[in-house]
Amino acid sequence: MNQLIDRFEAMLAAGQDTAVLRFSLGNAYLDDDPAQAATHLKRAVELDPRYSAAWKILGKALTLCGESANAITAYRTGIDIAESKGDKQAAKEMRVFLNRLIRTTQN
Asked: Helices H, strands E: what count in the chain?
């Protein structure tokens, strides 16, 4: 494990279970362990359902895990949340990822 993950895991073990910490852990795990990333990102959106950045990375983690249907759901939820908050850039990015994923699952 890298030092950043170690530090975040220590914070979590100490009882600091926040959406931002879970997002940070998910982001840190994303490339090396997408399943672990998805676990933390799911918790992040449970703690803060309006955390559009967490929805975006959750969609990516689920895609990397081969969970296309769940990734599509995460992206759609994230787009709705981002649009309701006026976060146009996040909604635009998720829409691109969603459309790309839908195209690849149809082939």
From this structure: 6, 0
